[in-house]
Design brief:
Radius of gyration: 29 Å
Strand order of the largest sheet: 7-6-5-8-9-11-10-12
Number of strands: 12
CATH class of the largest domain: Alpha Beta
Helix content: 55-70%
Oligomer: single chain
Low-confidence stretches: 210-230
CATH topology of the largest domain: Rossmann fold
Strand content: 5-15%
Length: about 800
């Protein structure tokens, strides 16, 4: 019973470790921002600690007599330290502000300082996490003939724990309990594991490992229970060790690219990322578990290792071929399962498994086989596992950083995948040619065909139909109810709606199209229409105009989100001294130039200061104070966007406003449940005591919040409306006079206070909007929300004079 009990503990270690990764990443993004650089820096710090722990403890544990004792101690340290993490993170904020002021103009210097800041905070728990696999490997291995199966199953078991941690955190724990309580569960699991291990040791004080370190070469052991290993040259062994580092690099390239692809075609919400990561880890765990059963009986492990790499490349290429079919497959799933959000999520899992399962199975098989190959030259199990795990993790760090920050923006998703495929095939080919084969001529028999296959794949890559890839079927599936595959392909032929711009940026894919039917130019982000030159114009203009007309002072203005540029362009007619524009994705700024005919060309305005940054992070660190802040982000159901709909974000805006300042927030009425709609309004009103709500057009609202009771002079508003450029800007969306503008007013502070009574707050902790809004993407909620507002409508004369 001892062995199954310890293995259960290791499963729980994987579970809690993944919870920490998810939770700490969420918490640190709120400090450092959600830019690709910030996220990569946090993940690099996390994985760097894992590599350090695996390497250090791998080199020291072989001299220890009771590895279970150290395992229990490390689990206890992780749990106790994790209890302090929220407190430690609060100290990061003032430190980060100081570092930002001094280093942010220097890209390399600021990146390094940011990494060191996170690494210092996370190094203790992540080092402890990285140490657990080499420590338990020392405890678990009893016979050299069982090395591969033992290490493979340990690795698989821990990864299965991570699978459960990913799925439970994304679908249940965070939506139901929030960040803090989920963190409490992870801490409780660690402390429970530590306590259980200590009790086990107390009841079984005998040494838990053999008196002499096991050896893993057949020559030393004299075991005959397995096939004799063919002696591998030292050059082959070290090529495999370096190869697993490169393999880790490639696997993270795939993970980043697959995540971006699925966000285009299957789901762009927080649930989409959970589906991708869960599927990826399932494949790794299954591959390690299944293959470990055979790894100890392989006569030619180097030869098999080579074919595993080739298999990864081949199946990754086959998945790339199927990407063009995913939009239609998603439509078929929606027609069958769309009546239930839970069934539809299950269907999305099926699509993700179809794309990723085969190559990730081969990835999972690589680890136990590499350990077995490396063991033929080193006879200490902790060092073996520690070195291999460290090499693989270092590759993963580089792949994670390079994939999102360099490769996709420079090469695009398809070519990034092709790079990974080519590296897999060439790595496999190299090992195929230098290692021992079952027959001397086999390597030369298979080598030329593999090289030819590599050349064909890279020279004749599959077509990437950009209009189809950004069709947005995952959100507009209702519009394709009876569309056939042929009709779908024809519908997104570039000759129908010309593709004016397409860029796979650091955080999302931006495209600009022109409708042949209406002549409208429209912008998409991950397939979701974000702005247009016709239908969205009233909202885009008035989100900029209304706060500028109401604000007492207009000197310093901050606009969150570029989009088409119409909103910030509607600010430029006013006599502001400085207009700061914060946009997360550089590709949006590039795409906005196709709206120059309708957006007043704000990028040419000398008063405009452009900040390519995370808006929340910018508000956290900037020392500036503003007269007007305008926030017009994307829909809150899209991953990461909900962070600018929380109480904490609104509070940041409140703190950065001057005493008479105005905060303007756009809010949709469509595809958001009445409960979520009321939650956003409640959260906004909780921060701003004086809230005035306008309705630019039927589907949108503009919430205007003041820190103190405003002077709402109609005479001043009318005077500003008569300024020539302001008047021209308003008239193009049908606002001809003051009466027309005031007809769009809905309610003031008294009505907002009544409406929001009993409403829930959306906070960084509970993330209500982030997890609830993706579930109403296909619900018709516009009329429901309009009916909620109807009883509270008031004439503008009640507040404006």
């Amino acid at each position: 019973m001892i062995r199954p009990f310890v293995l259960l503990c290791f499963f729980l270690s994987g579970f809690s470790g993944l919870l920490y990764e998810v939770l700490w990443l969420r918490m640190l993004i709120l400090i450092f921002g959600s830019t690709t650089l910030a996220v990569s820096t946090v993940l690099t710090s996390f994985m760097g600690g894992l590599a350090l722990g695996s390497y250090w403890f791998g080199r020291t544990m072989d001299r220890k007599k009771n590895p279970l004792l150290y395992y229990g101690l490390l689990e206890g340290i992780i749990g106790l330290y994790a209890l302090m993490i929220p407190w430690l993170f609060t100290f990061l904020i003032p430190a980060y502000r100081v570092l930002w002021e001094h280093f942010h103009p220097n890209f390399l210097g600021f990146t390094l300082v940011q990494f060191l800041l996170v690494f210092v905070v996370l190094v203790i728990p992540t080092t402890c996490m990285g140490a657990t696999l080499p420590i338990l490997s020392k405890w678990a291995v009893r016979q050299e003939t069982h090395l591969g199966v033992t290490i493979g199953r340990l690795y698989a078991l821990n990864t299965f724990g991570a699978v459960i941690g990913t799925a439970l955190s994304g679908f249940f724990l965070l939506p139901l309990l929030g960040v803090n309580k989920t963190l409490g569960i992870a801490v409780a699991v660690n402390l429970l594991v530590a306590l259980s291990i200590f009790l086990l040791i107390r009841r079984n004080p005998a040494p838990s490992v053999p008196q002499r370190p096991p050896s893993f070469s057949e020559k030393e052991s004299g075991q005959s229970g397995t096939a004799a290993l063919s002696p591998l040259p030292r050059g082959v062994i070290w090529s495999v060790v370096l190869g697993i580092s490169l393999s880790g690099f490639i696997s993270m390239i795939y993970e980043v690219a697959w995540s971006r692809t699925l966000s285009l075609l299957v789901d762009s919400s927080v649930y989409g990322f959970t589906i991708m990561l869960t599927t990826f880890l399932v494949g790794i765990a299954l591959g390690s578990y299944v293959f470990s059963r055979k790894v100890d009986t392989l006569r030619f492990p180097g030869f098999v290792w080579a074919w595993l790499q080739i298999g990864i490349g081949v199946f990754a290429f086959l998945s790339l071929l199927f990407f063009q079919e995913l939009p239609y497959w998603y439509l078929l799933l929606y027609r069958s399962l769309g009546h239930s959000i839970n069934l539809l999520l299950t269907g999305k899992f099926i699509l993700a498994f179809f794309i990723m399962l085969a190559p990730t199975l081969f990835m999972g098989a690589i680890f136990p086989l590499t350990v077995k190959i490396y063991a033929s030259s080193i006879s200490r199990v902790s060092r073996i596992v520690g070195n291999i795990y460290t090499a693989n993790t270092l590759g993963c760090i580089l792949g994670s950083f390079a994939g999102g920050f360099f490769l996709i923006p420079l090469l695009g998703i398809r070519n990034t995948l092709l790079l990974g495929i080519g590296l897999n095939l060439l790595l496999g080919l190299y090992l195929l040619l230098i290692t021992t084969a079952p027959r001397p001529g086999l390597k030369w028999f298979f080598g030329p065909p593999v090289l030819l296959l590599t050349w064909i794949i890279l020279w004749f890559p599959p077509v990437w139909k950009a209009p189809l890839m950004v069709s947005g079927v995952y959100i507009y599936a209702q519009n394709f109810d009876k569309t056939s595959r042929k009709e779908l392909l024809k519908m997104y032929d570039p000759q129908n709606d010309p593709l004016l711009f397409y860029k796979e940026g650091h955080t999302c894919t931006i495209s600009v199209h022109k409708s042949r039917r209406t002549g409208a130019v429209y912008m998409k982000s991950n397939g979701k229409v974000e702005a247009s030159s016709k239908g969205d114009m009233p909202t885009q203009v008035l989100v900029g105009q209304i706060p500028m007309l109401l604000a007492p002072r207009l000197e310093e203005v901050l606009v969150v989100g570029m989009g088409s540029g119409v909103t910030v362009g509607s600010v430029t007619p006013f006599p502001a001294k400085k207009i700061t524009l914060v946009e997360l994705e550089k590709a949006v700024i590039e795409g906005s130039r196709f709206f120059d005919q309708v957006n007043n060309q704000p990028l040419k305005d000398p008063r405009l200061v452009l900040q390519v940054a995370d808006a929340r992070n910018y508000l956290l660190v900037t020392p500036d104070r503003y007269d007007v802040i305008i926030s017009e982000p994307s829909n809150p159901w899209m991953a990461g966007v909900a962070n600018v709909f929380t109480r904490e974000f609104f509070r940041l805006g409140y703190d950065k406003l001057k005493p008479e300042g105005v905060f303007c927030q756009w809010l949709q009425l469509y595809k958001i449940s009445p409960e979520s709609f009321k939650t956003v309004l409640t959260t906004f009103h909780k921060v701003f005591p004086y809230v005035y709500v306008f309705q630019p057009q039927e589907k949108d609202l503009v919430m205007v919040g003041f820190k103190q009771k405003p002077d709402l002079s109609l005479a001043r508003i009318e005077e500003r409306m008569k300024w020539k450029l302001v008047e021209q800007d308003l008239k193009r969306v049908g606002v001809m006079d003051l009466e027309n503008l005031m007809s769009r007013f809905i309610m003031g502070p008294a009505e907002v206070s009544t409406l929001t009574q009993g409403g829930r707050l959306n906070t960084d902790d509970n993330a209500l909007i982030e997890f609830s809004t993706p579930k109403t993407l296909f619900a018709e909620t516009e009329d429901l929300n309009a009916r909620i507002l109807e009883p509270y409508r008031q004439p503008a004369g009640k507040y404006f004079y």
